[in-house]
Structure formats: C-alpha cells, structure tokens
Amino acid sequence: MSRVTLSRYLIEQTRSNNTPADLRFLIEVVARACKEISHAVSKGALGGVLGSAESENIQGEVQKKLDVLSNEILLEANEWGGHLAGMASEEMDNAYQIPGKYPKGAYLLVFDPLDGSSNIDVNVSVGTIFSVLRCPNQCFSQNDSLGEEAFLQPGTEQVAAGYAIYGPQTMLILTLGHGVMGFTLDRELGSFVLTHEHLQVPQSTAEFAINMSNQRHWEEPVKRYVGELLAGKEGPLGKNYNMRWIASMVADVHRILTRGGIFMYPRDARDPSMPGKLRLMYEANPMSMIIEQAGGAATTGTQRILDIQPSSLHQRVPVFLGSKEEVERVTGYHQA
Ligand code: P6P
After folding, report:
1. Residue 6: which H helix or E strand, with range?
2. End of a domain among 173, 196, 219?
3. CATH number at residue 31
4. In a domain? residue 1
5. Which residue has a Cα nearest atom 16 of ligand 1?
6. pLDDT confidence of residue 252
7. Which residue has the CA at smallest separation from atom 4 of ligand 1?
8. What is the CATH number of the domain that holds 319?
C-alpha cells in the first residue's frame, strides 16, 4: 500500500469531510513545528537545551530551556500564516497577539508546547499537546488586541485536537472530529506517515495510572476506587490490575489510547484552592476530545470535561479519562 503522508490524509479529509483549507494548513504548520521540537528534544545534552531556563511560568513552575524553545518554535511557525486570530500557551500569561504585519485568520491555537518537561533531563518521553478552536464573532476582523474571553469555549467547540509524542518514535496523534489517526515520523522522508487508523480505546481494562504518592490527600470516592483496584481478584472488581505512572500526560494517555487504561489526576487536599493539577484548555480538553473520539470517556469525576464552560485560560480541573467502563465506575462513586 502506498504510504499516506499527513499532507495526503488532510487533502483526502478535505474531500470527504469538507475540512477547510486553512484548517488543513494549520495542522500542517503545527506538525512541522513538532518535527522541529522533536529534533531539539532528541539532541539532549548535545544541544545545550537541557536544564532550567532560570524563569517561571504563570503556573509558578520553573521553565526548562526546552519549554521556552518549544513555545517559541510554535509561535514563530504559526504567527505569519494568516490562519490564526491568536494563540495561547501554558508558557505565556496572556493570549498571544498576531503581529500587525501579518493577516489574521479564523482559528485559535492553544497548546502546551512541551508537556512532561520534568522528564526531559532524565530522557523520558515528553510531548506537545494542541487544541484548535474557531475565533468567535469574527474576532479576527477586530484590530484591537484579542482578549482571553475569545478562548474561553467549552471543549465541545474544538474543531481539532492532537499531540506529538517524542519517544522511541516521534508520533502525531490527530483528530478532526472524525476519529483518531496516528502518524509516525519517517525521519528519512521528513514526513509524518499514517500508521494507525481510527484508534480505539478498549472499553474495559486492567491497568490504571495515578500518582500513588498523593493517596492520603485524595477525596473519598478516589480512595474507594483505587482501593478496589488494589484489592484485585479478591476484591469487589474481581480482577487484578496493573499500574503505570510515567508522569508525562502525553506518554500515559498514548499508552491508554493504544492498549486501554484509566488515567487519573484528581483534586487533592494538598492545595484546596487548586481543583487538580492539569490545565483544562491545553491538557484536559484536547486529550478528552481525542479519548472520546476513540470511544473512551473523560470526566472531572462529576461532569464531562468537554462540557465545562472555562472561566480562565489557565484553570485546572480534575481528570479521569480512558476506558469507558472504568471512567464511568469512578465517576459513579463521586455521585454516591
Ligand atoms: P506529578 C507534567 O508536569 C504534568 O503536567 C503531566 O504531564 C503529568 O501527567 C503530571 O504533570 C505529573 O504530575 O504530580 O505526578 O509529577
């Protein structure tokens, strides 16, 4: 079978699902930026890009040099193309304004340029997560600066979502709302090649992902659920479960997309003001769209993540996502 590159897939999507040309262009630009990030990440110590950037982001997290570099790569790749009205990123306090010398377009791009970056210095898989929204009310026609409110749309409004994972292979996982496709980077060609069509999350699983060190801080429904997982065959769930925690959301979600599982980052008592660690706009929403498009489920424990009306660009939410049977079980315990 002739190899289907990302470009060919996107052209065929235009024919079959009326994917707009400027959305196709947006995805191609983001994919190219991810190739550049993959190249920088793979250099490691040889590229002088490991370690701290001696700066903090709005999250109060120390930025790695590669966090800042990845953010710059995505901004520079996207700002001139005329397909965006603005951008937002984990690494920037406010929305990024398209420079006046460039035309604006109909989309908003929101991203975590390098998720899991605490793993970079120990050579564990990291990734780029992105979400595409339409700009509301012709916001691209306005000359004044784009406000945060243009981005504050529920996850159901996403027109595309995806991630690149920089692991043994560099892969791009993409959904345009018609299923989830996986592309593997062919470094000889320099192209992403379609290798996984219509990925599906198995409905049931025997594998869970959570940071167990926070167990004493969890709310009761989570303590109950994880206790049942740990009770195994002799417990109420009647089977033994395995556990994985890579502490890189892209890597944990990719495993679940590939072989099933449930990923959990619940709110906990360590900081009652924080409703969880993961950010809604550029972690939970894109990953939830991907998981739902692949037949899985994604909730905060009390509501569907994609239904949340965002209140701020960097707001955090609890996350339970993956195999539908397990997500529905732990969500049910929150209703009890
Ligand atoms: P913890 C990475 O910093 C991240 O945002 C996600 O990629 C990952 O799932 C989570 O945090 C890991 O958090 O508390 O286990 O280090």
Report:
1. helix 6-17
2. 196
3. 3.30.540.10
4. no
5. 247
6. 98
7. 116
8. 3.40.190.80
Return the ∠ at Cα 178 (arms to 177 and 179), rounded to 5°: 100
pLDDT for residue 295: 98
Candidates 214, 249, 270, 287: which one to mutate for ligand 1, based on the most atoms within 8 Å of Cβ? 249
Among protein residues, the one whose CA lies closest to atom 13 of ligand 1: 247
Based on the fold, state whether residues 15 and 159 are members of the same structural domain. yes
Question: Are 135 and 230 within one domain?
Answer: no
Name the domain count of the chain.
2
Instruction: Using DSSP, state whether 62 is helix, strand or coil.
Output: strand
Query: Given this model, what pLDDT does residue 1 score?
Result: 57
| Secondary structure (DSSP) of 193-247 | EEEE-S----SS-SEEE--GGGGGGB-HHHHHHHHHHHHGGGSTT-S--EE---S
Prediction pTM value: 0.96
Residue 73 is part of which domain span?
6-196
Q: Do the Cβ atoms of 125 and 116 come closer than 8 Å?
A: yes
Question: Ligand 1, closest atom to CA 245?
Answer: 15
The reply to whether 225 and 170 lie within a common domain is no
Give pLDDT, residue 46: 86
Residue 320 CA to its chain's centroid (Å): 14
Residue type, 233: K
Domain assignment present for 139: yes
Q: How distant is the alpha carbon of residue 81 from its chain centre?
A: 23
Task: For residue 318, report the distance from its CA to the centre of ligand 1, in Å.
Answer: 12
Residue-level pLDDT at 142: 67
177 lies in the same domain as 73: yes
- Tell me, yes or no, whether 145 and 107 share the same domain: yes
What's the pLDDT score for residue 182?
A: 98
Show the ligand 1 pocket: residues with CB < 6 angstroms.
Answer: 115-116, 118, 211, 247-249, 252, 277
- Domain final position from 176, 196, 216: 196
Mean pLDDT by 10 residues, the chain (336 residues): 89 90 96 97 84 75 84 97 96 94 95 91 95 87 82 98 97 97 96 97 98 97 98 97 97 98 96 92 98 98 98 97 98 94
